[in-house]
Amino acid sequence: MTITDAQWKAARETLRAAGDRFTRLVRTSEPRAMATADWSVADTAAHVAVIALMNTKLVTSEPFPFPKAHEIFETARVETVADFNDVTLREFTERDVPTLAGRLTEDIDRILSSTADHDPDEPLPWLGGARIPVAGVFAHLTNELLIHGRDVARATGVRWEIDPADAAQFFEIFLVGVTRYGSGHLLDTDRPISDRRVAVEFRSRYTTPVTMVLDRGQVSLAAPRPDDDVRLFYDPATLALMLFGRVSRARAALTGKVVVWGRRPWLLPIFLKKMRLPS
207: which residues sit within 8 A by CB, 6+ positions away? Predict the structure, then answer.
């Protein structure tokens, strides 16, 4: 499951293109329009700028930019990511959208230039003690740009398409990378998790088939097998929107963009109690 040269090239090109799309969108949007229930367009642009700045510091090994959020970063779980976002947005006070767009472009430039000679598989520290490959930084930031670009576009009545090939990078590079290198405390939960082993095979037209296995509360990777409990065929854009709470599971299923079958498909909710994302 190492990052191929083609994946690395695509991740770099996609980040640049997604950044350009996002900055063009927010520059022409009403800053006070509500992009989500809690964030205006300006707040959303600030959040994405924060993520880009944080990722820049990670790939350049510079000090963490938000002192008050540093402890949350190191101990974060999925349930506390919202706290991390709140603290960073209080520390990062810029809300002028053209300024934010400029800073975002500058940070993407730095991420690209500073990693030109990096091994895309080099592990980096992440939220909650997790580790991700360098290429995972690109896939994560691209996903933020695509998801929040959709938020802004819906708020301002602009069409926003998400190319499934671009969205696929979040699963195949970031999520698989986190699973491969270790999720630390990020997926820890106070909710009871079944000890039952659950193997879920993920397939799409844009990714290499892979199975994620939940066993005794830990998630690992495996090659697909005929006896996997669940098989899940997905459109990468819809899966990302579903995992981040933008599209309901019912809608994803009814539109045929996420299809679940297999020997024991009823075990999928057990898996998703562990392998979950902030929405």
Answer: 168, 171, 172, 236
Yes or no: say if 228 and 202 are a contact pair by the CB < 8 Å rule: no
pLDDT confidence of residue 189: 84
Cα 271 from Cα 218, distance rounded (Å): 10
Tell me the fold of 5-181.
Answer: Four Helix Bundle (Hemerythrin (Met), subunit A) (1.20.120)
The domain spans of the chain are: 5-181, 198-274
Written as one string, the DSSP assignment of 210-251 is: EEEEEETTEEEEE---TT-SEEEEE-HHHHHHHHTTSS-HHH
At residue 65, φ and ψ (nearest 5 deg) are -80, -10
Please give the CATH topology (third level) of the domain spanning 198-274.
Nonspecific Lipid-transfer Protein; Chain A (3.30.1050)
Q: H or E segment at 52?
A: helix 41-60
Q: If the chain, 279 residues long, is cut into consecutive pieces of 10 residues, what is the mean pLDDT of each piece?
A: 94 98 98 96 98 96 90 90 94 97 98 96 95 97 98 96 98 97 91 88 98 94 97 98 94 96 96 88
